[in-house]
From TrEMBL:
The gene is lysA. It catalyses: meso-2,6-diaminopimelate + H(+) = L-lysine + CO2. Its cofactor is pyridoxal 5'-phosphate. PROSITE patterns: ODR_DC_2_1. It comes from Chitinophaga horti. Homodimer. Belongs to the Orn/Lys/Arg decarboxylase class-II family. LysA subfamily. Pathway: Amino-acid biosynthesis; L-lysine biosynthesis via DAP pathway; L-lysine from DL-2,6-diaminopimelate: step 1/1. GO terms for molecular function: diaminopimelate decarboxylase activity. Signal peptide: none annotated. The keyword Plastid does not apply. This is Diaminopimelate decarboxylase. It holds the Pfam family Orn_Arg_deC_N. Residues 31-274 form the Orn/DAP/Arg decarboxylase 2 N-terminal domain. Substrate binds at R306, Y310, E337, Y364.
Length: 409
């Protein structure tokens, strides 16, 4: 979402990258990531707070390496993300593993790699305790039963959610911890994505404070993420400064009462990388029907699925004709499925061959892409210090066939 000039890549910069590397292409602006990270650090400067980038939003190894260079930790949800983090150079101590519904084998693999582990169900907690006792400290993911988040699909803390162990099962957790001598050093919650209301976090942390009395070895409280960013001008955002102020106040007050020093942890994904990303496509055809003017672009939900999957709004602009007259278009993809990026959008006049940009394409953009329709995944480019670097080559037809095994027929 364009805000200030220095915060946003210009149309001409994006066009240049599109011309050099082709389209569709994801473009990431490194300095914007740094700006976001710095905002978080500053908002929480008065408390002992650490941030772990939730890398499921965007896992290109260069993005991970850049996060590491900023001093940010890493939050992972699969053993593969853990391995990517280690390859990117993260110290295992700076990696959190927060999977759900994985088997004990995957948890053991993470233990062998030495990362922080969040356990999110009673069954694994018991198995882990029985196998390792207190020899490897763990964190527990609780479900505080707070209904929050931009929509039901991305809300994870409600009563019907599969995530975390219900706070109402605390007695059961305690029994397992006691009888297996588990050492619990962290409590975790993550109530969902796109939470704009600061009070949700304050309610969450109060519940976590209440839970601390059951765990004598705590070192950290992890409030997950869910910071909302603006997707268009005027969109509400999580007020990070207010959040920092209020949470710091609550946290420091609690820490003074608590017998041990506690760290506050967060796992932002979207907040760090959403706005750094631009997805540039080409207008293939302008198709006027009786009711609608469609722009058909050389991409689809195989490359950016958020509009179709979550009904997400991504601002679309014509960077090849930024001064043109505004007209109303419906922007669709080239996939043989209903594939609409945006209905009735005011965009400056689009001509076939023009480049369009989708803003806020850094988080859950490339990462959720697929090869549906046997289309190739886009290239990724990182702009750092004003220079574009190719950080992922566009797929080729060989990538589609690479793991297929041809049998005698
Ligand atoms: C997805 C996820 C996050 C990041 O959420 P955002 O809305 O992208 O900030 C953080 N923690 C966990 C455990 C997650 O699954």
């Amino acid at each position: 979402m364009p805000k200030t000039q220095s915060d946003v890549l210009s149309a001409s910069t994006l066009v240049k990258v599109a011309e050099e590397f082709g389209t569709p292409v994801y473009i990431y602006h490194a300095e914007k990531i740094k700006t976001q990270y710095t905002k978080l650090k500053q908002a929480f400067a008065k408390s002992d707070t650490r941030f772990f980038y939730a890398c499921k939003a965007l896992t290109n190894i260069n993005i991970l390496r850049y996060m590491n260079s900023l001093g940010c930790g890493l939050d992972t949800v699969s053993i593969q993300e853990v391995e990517l983090g280690l390859r990117a150079g993260f110290d295992p101590k700076n990696i959190i593993f927060t999977p759900n519904c994985v088997d004990l084998q995957e948890i053991i693999a993470a233990k062998e790699l030495g990362v922080n582990i969040n356990i999110d169900n009673i069954s694994i907690l018991e198995q882990f305790g029985n196998t390792f006792g207190g020899s490897y400290p763990i964190c527990i993911r609780l479900n505080p039963h707070i209904m929050a988040g931009g929509n039901f699909k991305i809300s994870t803390g409600h009563v019907d959610s599969k995530f975390g162990i219900s706070i109402h099962q605390i007695r059961h957790i305690e029994r397992i911890v006691k009888s297996t001598k588990l050492k619990v050093t962290g409590l975790h919650m993550h109530t969902g994505s796109e939470i704009k209301d600061v009070d949700v976090f304050l309610r969450g942390v109060e519940i976590m404070f209440e839970m601390t009395e059951h765990f004598p070895d705590l070192e950290s409280i992890d409030l997950g993420s869910g910071f909302k960013v603006a997707y268009q001008p005027g969109d509400p955002e999580t007020d990070i400064d207010l959040l920092g102020e209020k949470l710091t106040e609550a946290f420091n007050k609690f820490s003074a009462k608590y017998k041990r020093p506690l760290q506050l942890w967060f796992e932002p994904g979207k907040y760090l990388v959403s706005q750094c990303g631009y997805f540039v496509v080409k207008a293939n055809v302008i198709k006027q029907t009786t009711a609608t003017v469609f722009v058909g672009v050389n991409s689809g939900f195989n490359h950016l699925i958020r509009p179709m999957f979550y009904d997400s709004f991504h601002l679309i602009r014509n960077i090849s004709n930024p001064q043109g007259t505004e007209r109303i278009y419906t922007v669709v993809g080239n996939i043989c499925e209903t594939d609409t990026f945006g209905w009735d959008r005011k965009i400056t006049e689009v001509r076939e061959g023009d480049f369009l940009v989708f803003y806020n394409a850094g988080a859950y953009g490339f990462e959720m892409s697929s090869n549906f329709n046997s289309r190739l995944k886009p290239a990724e480019v990182m702009i750092k210090d004003g220079k574009p670097h190719l950080i992922r080559k566009r797929d080729t037809i060989d990538d589609l066939l690479k793991n297929q095994v041809e049998i005698a027929l």
